[in-house]
Each structure stands twice: as structure tokens, then as C-alpha cells.
Specification:
CATH class of one domain: Alpha Beta
CATH architecture of one domain: 2-Layer Sandwich
Radius of gyration: 32 Å
Helix content: 25-40%
Largest sheet: 5 strands, mixed
Order of helices and strands: HEEEHHHEHEH
Structural class: alpha/beta
Number of strands: 5
Strand content: 5-15%
């Protein structure tokens, strides 16, 4: 690997002299480029942190879903209010905290049967018991089930962006693919202000 050249003096009466060793660096440069190429090809680049959302046409959404679930995201991300069915000004709002995953538990309970079926199919696919085509077909069949609840995610101008992203992430984790994102009504906002958080 190294080109070492030594020259000796053949003159009489003088000791042999050794010239310094000269090392050829060309193979080391090749090795450096090979290592660089290896690490570039095997390293994982940063993943895109984005949420894919399908937005409906620009129409006034019908928020009176009798069998649906409505989540109210307000100023305080630790108190996320929710209720089932149609809104009534005299109703009592339930509260779920963001930090202790209560909202995730509420969504899991609302979509319990489909959530368990999709988790089983995903586990079978990860273990190699289902090929991609069958896994995709079964997953689409379960996610298209009519028992998947419709969730209305409501926010106001005091809601921070992270609360909306966390709620959408929880919807995706619990396999709820039917949801709408709309602004909260004045009546809901007033009820939310007067509501005492109870668990």
C-alpha cells in the first residue's frame, strides 16, 4: 500500500544514509471516498414531518352528527373537551387531558372493534403471515366499515397548532379515517368557558 523508497550511498568510507520514507496517499483517498459513499447510501435521511389531510369542497359542513364524536380544542391543551351526538347548550362536556393520553383512550373506545381488527391484520403482515395485497385489501375493508365513528375536530383562534396536530395524529393512530376539521361555534365556546373540567 505504501511506496517506500530507500536510497543508499555506495561511496567508500561513508555510512549508509537513509532517506525519509515517502508514503503514497492515493489508496487512502480512494478508501475515504468508498467510506463516504457507503455512509451516504446507508444512512436514513430525515423524514418529512407532515400530515396528509383530505379537505372537502368549500361548503358549509353539517355538524349535527347524531352518532358522531365532537372534540373541542381550546386555549388550554391540557383540557380537551368532547361530547357525543348533537350539541345542546345545556349538555355536560367530557374532558380529556393531552398529557396522559386520555383523548387517545376515548378515540380507541369509540373505534374499538375496527381498531382491534386493524391491529391484528397489521401484526400478521409484520410477521409475514399476510402478503401486501391481502393486507392492504383487509385493511381497506375494515377501515371502510360503517362502524368507524365520524369525528368532528373543532378549534378556535386561541388553539395552538401542536394541539391540532396531536389530535389528528391520535385519529390516525386509532384508525379513524372519517373526520372533519371545522371552527368551534360561539355556543360551544361559551359552554367550554363555563365548563368545570371533571374526569
Amino acid at each position: 500500500m505504501a511506496d517506500i523508497q530507500q536510497q543508499q550511498s555506495h561511496r567508500k568510507g561513508r555510512r549508509r544514509s537513509h532517506l525519509p520514507v515517502r508514503v503514497d496517499m492515493t489508496p487512502l483517498v480512494d478508501l475515504a471516498f468508498l467510506l463516504l459513499t457507503f455512509f451516504v447510501l446507508t444512512s436514513e435521511l430525515s423524514k418529512q414531518n407532515a400530515i396528509t389531510t383530505k379537505f372537502p369542497k368549500d361548503v358549509q359542513p353539517n355538524t349535527l352528527v347524531n352518532n358522531g364524536l365532537t372534540i373541542l380544542l381550546g386555549k388550554n391543551p391540557e383540557n380537551i373537551f368532547w361530547y357525543r351526538g348533537e350539541f345542546k347548550p345545556s349538555m355536560h362536556l367530557n374532558v380529556a387531558g393531552k398529557g396522559n393520553q386520555e383523548l387517545l383512550d376515548v378515540l380507541k373506545n369509540a373505534n374499538e372493534s375496527v381498531f382491534e381488527q386493524v391491529e391484528i391484520v397489521d401484526r400478521q403482515h409484520n410477521l409475514g403471515l399476510l402478503n401486501y395485497a391481502n393486507w392492504n385489501k383487509k385493511r381497506a375493508e375494515y377501515l371502510g366499515n360503517r362502524s368507524v365513528p365520524f369525528v368532528i375536530l373543532k378549534w378556535d383562534n386561541e388553539t395552538d397548532y401542536q394541539s391540532v396536530v396531536t389530535a389528528i395524529d391520535d385519529l390516525n393512530r386509532t384508525h379513524i379515517n372519517k373526520y372533519a376539521i371545522v371552527s368551534v361555534s360561539d355556543a360551544e365556546k361559551e359552554l367550554e368557558k363555563n365548563q368545570v373540567p371533571v374526569k
